[in-house]
Amino acid sequence: MPDRMFRNVGMDLVRVTEAAALSAARFMGTGDKEAGDGAAVDAMRAVLRAVDMDGIVVIGEGEKDEAPMLYNGERVGNGQPPQVDVAVDPVEGTRLLALGRPNSIAVIAIAPRGAFWSPGASLYMEKIVVEKAARDAIDITLSPTENLERIAQALQRPVSDLTVFVLDKPRHAELIREIREAGARISLQTDGDVMGALMAAIPGTGIDVLMGIGGTPEGVIAAAAVKAIGGGMQGRRAPQKEYEREALRSNLGDSIDQVLNLDDLVRSEDAFFAATGITDGPFLEGVHFDRAGGVTTHSIVIRALTGSLRYIRGVHQLKPEHIFGRMDTDGAVQIATR
After folding, report:
1. For the stretch 97-120, what's the b/e string if a residue is b when 16 or more beta carbons lie within 10 angstroms of its beta carbon?
2. DSSP-assigned states of every residue in 214-233
3. Which residue, among 103, 131, 104, 134, has the nearest Cα to 24 in the 3D structure?
4. pLDDT at position 61, please?
5. Contact 236/230 with Cβ under 8 angstroms?
6. To 10 degrees, the CA torsion angle through 301, 302, 308, 311?
7. How many Å apart are CA 135 and CA 207, to the nearest integer?
8. Nearest to 252 by CA among 162, 65, 74, 119
């Protein structure tokens, strides 16, 4: 596809995640996960209609959690080239948003048609993510201790200086015990492993490694970001329910344990990833409402082909009468302020 055409999509994706974040932020701390997620989904749909692309949603977060969703197979964009696959999570960290906790974000990734790995019946996957300097050191088939030792050697630091992002889930009790025994530090988070992967792949964020089991849709979205940054990532299916395990066995047999590298998860060198903070975090600030009626957002957009990484601070002047999906007099899509 013409590079100029595809290159221009990056900024449009930021507008999509900004819209989702602006709409969802009104529900921060309300305790209502579904309302915030639903607002973000509606926002993404409205803005995606105006984006120059012929997109198909192939990773639509929501089936696993029975949440509002941009569904798999949904056509998005205005139908013009380029033809792309789309992976979305309108609110990554719905519980974080509902409780007003850090690191809730709106995310989207795109790649040329057919480039994203299809998880099929796989709902959960084991993941390990590191920055570029350690990407050749990881091996998901080895123990956490062995991986931490190899990562520390690659980064030329002691294991005790490493900080590992782990989701605070009962399934990770043994992983947490082993990481502590190896001497590394742990950042335990209730949700948000796309953000964890992003922080692990970017040097200087305070997170050196992501380890553990999280959602498969989030894994594919994270892979687009990690590949764009040049970091290292491996994954493999990790079914958590018997029905998921049986469905995978009937379709895959012994290959259920296949190790998935970045090139398996994203089969293109030209992928885009964009994210906008909804609640404040150490990496991306959340949506801020000021006294003058302006709203500030903080976003990141990354392109794999060039390795370019841009941080974008947006200042938005929103009016109460602006409703998502309606157009103002000059044809601009407006954002709901609910």
Report:
1. bbbebbbbbbbbbbbbbebbbebe
2. EEHHHHHHHHHHHHHHT-EE
3. 104
4. 61
5. no
6. 30
7. 15
8. 119
- Rounded-to-integer distance, Cα 302 and Cα 11, Å: 10
- Cβ 113 vs Cβ 270: under 8 Å: no
What's the token pair of residue 331? 């044809």
The answer to whether residues 284 and 296 touch, using CB atoms and an 8 Å cutoff, is: no
DSSP state of 52: S
CA distances from 312 to 11, 12, 13, 147 (A): 10, 12, 12, 34
Q: Which two tokens stand for residue 282?
A: 């150490």
Reported as type and span, the H/E element at residue 272 is strand 272-277
Report if pTM > 0.90.
Answer: no
CB 54 within 8 A of CB 77: yes
The pLDDT, as a whole number, for residue 306 is: 84
Listed in sequence order, the DSSP H helices in 163-285 are 173-182, 193-201, 216-229, 242-252, 262-265
Coil, strand or helix: which one is 188?
A: strand
- 32's tokens: 């209502």
Q: Is 156 exposed, middle or buried (0-12, 13-18, 19+ CB in 10 A)?
A: exposed
Query: What does DSSP assign to residue 327?
Result: B
Tokens of 289: 């409402």
Rounded Cα distance, 258 and 141, in Å? 10
What distance in Å separates the CA atoms of residue 22 and residue 18, rounded to the nearest whole number?
Answer: 6
List the structure tokens of 106.
Answer: 């709106």
Task: Tell me the per-residue pLDDT of 259-315, one tens digit each, with 9 for 90 and over.
Answer: 999 999 999 988 999 999 999 998 899 999 886 668 999 999 999 888 888 999 998
